[in-house]
Amino acid sequence: MTTHTVAGVVDPGHRSQTLRTAILRSVSRSFYLSIRFLPTQLREPIALAYLLARATDSVADTQGISVPVRIETLKMLSDGIQGKSSRDVVVDLIAAFVPLQEKTSERQLLESLPDCLGWLSQIEQADRNDIRGVLEKITHGQMLDLQRFDNPQEIRALGTAADLDEYTYLVAGCVGEFWTRLCFRHVRNFARLSEDEMLALGKRYGMALQLINVLRDAGPDLRAGRCYFPEHELNAARLATSQILSEPERFQPIYRTWLEKAKAGLECGMRYSRAIENRRVRTATVLPALIGARTLSLLANAGAAALQCTIKVPRHEVRAMILRLAVSFASRRAIDAIFERAAMR
User: Does residue 62 lie within any of the structural domains?
Assistant: First the structure.
């Protein structure tokens, strides 16, 4: 990555700006749209945490490298994020992963990891501690996922609903808590509710967003040997994991149950968003719930066909949501109206 230098010294401000714009925009569509609304003091740590999480996710998902090696690399990469190993070690670790990335944006992201760690070392201590805390949980969830689904030739299911809840918490629910702590520290009069109440709602909100990902990606995951739906529920329906794709109608009652749970989690996200006093932060916070509500509506309308097609909210609908938020200054009445429209269409 090209960086500006003065007398041979890398300009950390330019480095973080490049990471936060070009790289972040290339690896995330909806998140980049949300983060632009945030005040600078929030944008920096949240963008950095997201980039680190996406980088570890790229390592976890790299095909062509064995699962044990990916798990070991994630452990050592986690040590680098926690400050227990040097950036040089991280560079050596990811060297074999970079050329295997199918997307240019993912290659650039992994190549930027040393810069991300340099940025992390420059960020204020409290934010650095929170970033390290949330990344520790995320990488643990990623490693657990690799251990559970270590054979793509065999479709395995999670054992219980608690296992799915654990997964959605480790990779996303903890992000809701992270977001909440940052906002209470950096935003004056952040919310009408207490920090404990917002932490609980933020956790449920994050878990719901990840559950939507699980529902949306159920077909591709099954074809890759991963079933996030609890085995005990499948057993009760006398449905084997190998039958889900061939008999999707029998799977629909289980699928719809988790759709409803995701909807309930998004309601927590709306309660969380309504409680936020700062309109810019409210806009950034509520946008994923609005997109999530529309995604759930599309999945419900698709029915059994959702396992065979790609469900994604069209860009023009997302732009329309953003425009309505901007015009209304993200008033509480407006975000409720947008949410209801997204959920009902």
Answer: yes
